[in-house]
Amino acid sequence: MPEAAEPSGQELDASDPTILRRPFTAEEIRDEWTVGLTLKIASTTLEGETVERWTVVAADDEGADIEYVMLDAEDNAIGEPRVEHAGWIELRDHASFLAASSRRKEVTRDTALGRLDGWLYTVEEANGDNVTEFFFAKSLPGAPVHVRMARGDELLMEMRQLERSRPE
Predict the structure, then answer these.
(1) Cα dihedral sign for 161, 163, 167, 168?
(2) Which end of the chain is less enclosed by CB atoms within 10 A, N or C?
(3) What whole-number distance in Å separates Cα of residue 53 and Cα of residue 41?
């Protein structure tokens, strides 16, 4: 993999220049992740594929309660759902990538959610073996639409948003 170009000042986070500018603010995520927002996520690992539904079941100024449930091939729940609380700052900070080992560029991607403009973050692990790409759509604050981790040509993990709905 070619060496990462030195990020320009505009690509660095204003409050912490050791990380790249995050795709969204905590406020943008809070405004998008209202009660009823639902994402259907497919995850592929070396062990196989799973599908999960994430639903915001409660939200306030501090954060959200998100229900996670595994789905079968017919979209029926498997097992008991779990609910976890996440603060808006915590959700924003999931997209904190060290400038020294990461790159950020604007791209357009075809996804299960359609053709989307966004930012592609490419993160190289310190040992240089694994490279992870995170694609965030500009119009969809919060979780990345696509994540792919590879070691050379070997796919280690992939996560894709398959569906996303938000109450009006």
Answers:
(1) positive
(2) C
(3) 6
CA–CA distances in Å: residue 33 to residues 26, 79, 146, 166: 10, 25, 18, 8
Q: What is the pLDDT of residues 34-60, one digit of tens each?
A: 999 999 999 999 999 999 999 999 999
Cα–Cα distance, 70 to 36 (Å, whole number): 17
Spell out the residues 6+ positions from residue 153 whose beta carbon is closer than 8 angstroms to its own.
none
Residue found under tokens 């500009």 = 138
Model confidence, pTM? 0.91
Name the residue with higher pLDDT: 78 or 5.
78
Q: Please, what are the domains in the chain?
A: 17-165 (2.50.20)
